[in-house]
User: What shape does this take?
Amino acid sequence: SAFVDIGLERAAFLHVADLMTAFGTRSGEGETAGAPRPNASALPIERQVFEGQVLLVQVIKDPIGTKGARLSTQISIAGRLLVFLPQDNHIGVSQKIPTAQRESLRARLQTLAGETGGGFILRTNGEDASDAELAEDVAYLRKAWARIKDASVRQPPLSLLHQDLNLLQRVLRDMVGDTTQVIRLDSREQFDALMVFGREFMPAAAAKLQHYKGERPIFDLFSIDEEIARALGRRVELKSGGYLIIDQTEAMTTIDVNTGGFVGARNFDDTIFKTNLEAAQSIARQLRVRNLGGIIIVDFIDMESAEHRNAVLEEFRKALSRDHTKMTVNGFTTLGLVEMTRKRTRESLAHLLCEPCSTCNGRGEVKTARTVAYEILRELLREARQFNAREFRVLAAPNVIDLFLEEESQSLAMLSDFIDKTVSLHPEASYGQEQFDIVLL
Assistant: This one.
């Protein structure tokens, strides 16, 4: 990989496989996704890019955690129905469209694309689009690419040349379907702007827009804040009385299923089976709502019956099929775990809305008052050997000081006698439980 300065806090990285080659082949949404690019990394990256070079790059994965953004020189621009590949002449069709329809769709798209250069991939939601709608998307994407090329010549390095649609526009483009009844916005300004966009590119979706004028805040009316709180919680309750425990770490996300107080079935096996079926639906929704990605391990409650395991796995895959994000799901392992991966391109909901706790530094736990008290005793001993102070004053949280005054008073007195110095205690209400200071007087 090469590290590339794109003007962010952390340098982005460009993998050799993401460099555009003369073959023009790439992985993407089309039927060639995952196919190897011939000679894509035949040369070391240092033979293909050099320090000080100015590149036109596209961010294909946002910065996540400590990792910088991932880049590609293989540009692709997403429209409502198509993805434009300006450096490629490939005409492809989404793998989610039935095989029987692909050839006719590819022929239609080939005709609409013409001979003016660039390739296209038909997205899933373009399966039933008319020629006029596809031609409109082709024109829009070519115009967007022309603007990018023009800006790349005029703008200095580290300039943003093109940005994907904003959140509201992406919702209208990617999430609105036939089952969507209404889309409510409480901002007149955003409603008008989205209506203009929708009428131009998505007339059917624009017809579902509605400006909410009620006095009650829209988040209160539809309990959005409660849903966000649930989406950030570690524990997710199931209607049956069971619950999920979701733990997100740097390496993976683990989801544990528990029966809780659910004992309503005729026997214990049925209780486990029904809890797991309900959990499969809930887990699929939590993955979407929380935008969890990477490696995900699901620990369903152990089932003796192979028939039950297969039924739960089938229900889980069915629930996940409503998710537009690319994922793979393996069967049950010998330990009874379901391993899966979900493509991670943006930070999860928790990482977007929260930050590590300043008290525990993101561990989720704090040291006990007794543990902190013993740390203070050891630190007093180190300080006494290093400095010849008249008195040592301990500043700590009130509950730690209370422990020294009560249960650990003898330990403190013994240490004071051992170092032959006075030790005074001062509670600080603003200190966290792990925080303390030793002042030399």
About this structure: The chain is about 35% helix and 20% strand. The radius of gyration is 29 Å. The first strand starts at residue 2 and ends at 4.
